[in-house]
Input
Amino acid sequence: MIAHSIFFYFFSIIAIFSSLMVITSRSTVNSVFFLILDFISVGCLFIMVGAEFLGMILLIVYVGAVAVLFLFVVMMLNVAEQKQSWFIGKKSNHLPSGLIISVLILLELLVVVGGWKYKEDLMSSSTLILSDVSNTHQLGLVMYTDYILYFQLAGIILLLSMIGAILLTFRKRTGVKRQSYFKQISRNPSSAIELKDVESNKGVKIND
Amino acid sequence: MLEYLQILGQEVYKIFFLLVPILVSVAMIVWLDRRIWGLVQKRRGPNVVGPFGLLQTLADALKYIFKEIIIPASANKVVFILAPIVTMTLALVAWAVIPMSENFILSDINVGILYLFAVSSLGVYGIIMGGWASNSKYPFLGAIRSAAQMVSYEVSIGIIIINVLLCVGSLNLKEIVLAQKDLWYVIPLFPMFVVFFISALAETNRPPFDLPEAEAELVAGYQTEYSGMMYAMFWLGEYANILLMCAMGSILFLGGWLPIIDIYPLNLIPAPIWMILKILFLFFLFALIKAIVPRYRYDQLMRLGWKIFLPFSLIYLVLTASFLFYFDKLPKGNF
Output
């Protein structure tokens, strides 16, 4: 058990430290790097409690895809601009709204932790029988039986948000030449080249 | 406490004996790559240092060690130094779960294939960090290209992995191999094997998808500002990743350490040799493609990933699932 607790404290200290660094570090890119470190150490904690599927999915989805996009956006910001004095000395006027949100989150956390006592009633499942089945199988058994509706709803919400994002950024440009692969491949020398007699002082009309 | 130290010592010993062969084989594979490239173009390739030029990579590595490491004045120093280390570490760390035979495996974890997928998707960080920290235009463009490319092709690799998992019913790499005892998945899932192979080319930034380091446009992409040992680490990490993708391909589709047919002279050959032969076969294809295919344009690359591979592998996934369901061949699992 000693090794287990050593590793637990190791990963949790890294997790807490990096989450503090996310909100305190001045450089936004460093913040994102600390966020990634946070995700990784939380993933390690998941694996330590035996939820290896969740840990790996956290790594794949959050670190492998979401954080990359975060980093993309943040890297586009102008670093020199952030170092100017107005950025550092400026007082934030988001204090009231931030306070309300953080109080709400604190309350939610309290409710969740308080409800832990009643977890037998809250998290009962008729299909799940605890045994030495690997937790990937267990998750599959519960997710596609008891919670199929929520699972499908989550999928539909994600699909809708994807379609929404595409719709918001989509704009049809005019006057852009596009490559048509079928047109290119179906060209042959006889139809591609056309011979014309050019009359003097008149020229030919070229249409593409 | 002494017991823990003993266990730790054993593990370190095992890890050491895994890492050294991998590093040596990476060096050899670089030589093989250049050699095949040369032979396709009717050149000789590196053939001077050592027998058949086998020691060429070692000589190169020695040269890199003695070169000066130059850090640009405007670079973000910590991230700049961290980037090659991240690339190299992630490329080596993934080998922990690769089974070379039924017993020859460092850690036999339940979610082996997910671990491989996670580590290979983390590989993009080394490149982004290197490109951003250089604080220069070409590396940054290269890093952005590379990140977009790797994220797009990961999606189709993920769906291909799901295809295989549907047939196996387990995430354990050993069980994936053992499930192919009667029939390698390259036969029923041949289209997926082709898509996997091409996606692996894109995932490891190999030609014809080596746009992140397209020398005609971006000098050397994200590696432009790197020199000496740090450049060598990027380079070794890249080749270790290529080997890893070959190993993944041979586990998922070519039946890992299993012999072609389980008959007398063939099953005398030890299992790790089969595995190595399959990895080498896939790498040979990688090297051939580098020599014979011209580079893609960036929009063509994105089109191939999102508009062709993604729908195709999704459709094939539905087909596989329906086939398995209809003929009642779905794996029952071991629970």
